[in-house]
Design brief:
Elements lengths: L2 E4 L2 E4 H24 L1 H10 L3 H12 L3 H8 L8 H17 L15 E5 L6 H11 L13 H13 L3 E8 L2 E11 L2 E8 L8 H16 L5 E4 L6
Parallel strand pairs: 2-7, 6-7
Antiparallel strand pairs: 1-2, 3-4, 4-5, 5-6
Helix pairs in contact: 1-4, 1-5, 2-3, 3-4
Length: about 230
């Protein structure tokens, strides 16, 4: 399977190309809308108390995700020229032709509502059990058959304490919708994402991947991360 390295992360292209293109379209569309409504955008920025408030105001004004609003805030004067606007419009049309869905079809992919918290062996055995029942393999990413649930969790806790692993539960509000597994193997962090079947194809896998970058970089500073696509669609 083809892979691509970007800034210390190795992405599984088959897993993320569509979502990266959707992100790019969200940004391009936001820039296009901002240029069309530049006076309103400028007023919103001037009235904002700080950058975060300005991003929120732009997102509400343009009906875009935070990702698009942040891109608008980062625009340079060079992007206001006719040539730059024309290039942006051409890119937007090209992306529209490439993609068959919009960000609204996968609302969770923006990552704005999903959070990660460290796995707790006492209170999160339920979601790990659900994952293991479906996948059938050990939680360490070795591909070997899963052992007993208590043994699997105890082993994971030991690896976390030894700074050889980092496990997280993906949350939508208080609902546990999936897990993120990071295992330090051969000088790289192997990152795997599992999303409950009923929450798939909504963008949660992409959101969990985004959130995991910061978490894994914090737990394993300077260590390259390899994103492993799961055997199911997220």
């Amino acid at each position: 399977m083809t892979a691509r390295r970007q800034g210390g992360l190795i992405y599984d292209v088959a897993m993320t190309d569509h979502d990266r293109a959707a992100d790019r379209r969200e940004i391009t569309n936001a820039l296009h809308s901002a240029l069309e409504r530049r006076h309103e955008v400028l007023d919103a920025i001037v009235e904002a108390s700080d950058r975060d408030a300005a991003v929120t105001a732009i997102a509400e004004l343009l009906g875009t995700a935070t990702l698009g609003a942040q891109a608008v805030m980062g625009m340079s004067f060079a992007q206001l020229t006719k040539d730059a606007r024309r290039a942006n419009q051409n890119e937007l049309e090209d992306l529209n032709n490439q993609l068959t869905f919009t960000l609204s079809d996968r609302p969770a992919s923006s990552g704005e509502t999903l959070g990660l918290r460290p796995f707790d062996g006492s209170t999160d055995s339920d979601i790990f059990a659900a994952r293991t029942d479906e996948i059938g393999s050990a939680g360490d990413g070795s591909g070997s058959p899963a052992g007993g649930l208590d043994d699997e969790i105890a082993s994971a806790v030991d690896r976390v304490h030894a700074e050889e692993a980092a496990w997280f539960v993906a949350l939508e509000g208080s609902d546990k919708i999936g897990m993120v597994f990071g295992e330090l193997i051969g000088g790289e962090v192997n990152v795997r994402i599992w999303i409950r079947p009923e929450h798939r194809k909504k963008g949660y896998g992409t959101a969990a991947l985004r959130a995991s970058r910061t978490e894994m970089a914090s737990h394993f500073p300077g260590v390259p991360m390899v994103i492993r696509a799961p055997g199911v669609s997220t």
